[in-house]
Amino acid sequence: MFKGALLGSGIAIVGLLIPIAHFITGPFGPAIGGYIGGQSLEDPSETNALGLGLLMGLIMAAISFIPIGALVTLSIVDTVWLAVPLGIGVYVTGLGMIGAFFGTRSSRRSEV
Hints:
Helix 2 crosses helix 3 and helix 3 packs antiparallel against helix 4. The longest helix has 29 residues. It contains 4 helices and no strands. By secondary structure, it is mainly alpha-helical.
């Protein structure tokens, strides 16, 4: 499941980095990454889809906490900015779970 979460998080980050398409792929990147990560799960169940989305949210929150935590530590920005990684984690978790749910459903249908 960790491999699928890393794959989904990577796709979400790449969706933000593409210069022209990031206005479309950026906001929906976690759902797209969750869908592809959900298809890569060995046991495509709803429980694993929820876990995949949660793990994606934790990974993205941790990644965004590093630079913001450094800025807060150096007193460059106020401590209120520490809420941003929490918001990113909740956003990615929600869309990642939705995408992973549909990815696991698609994976199970193709096996039949």
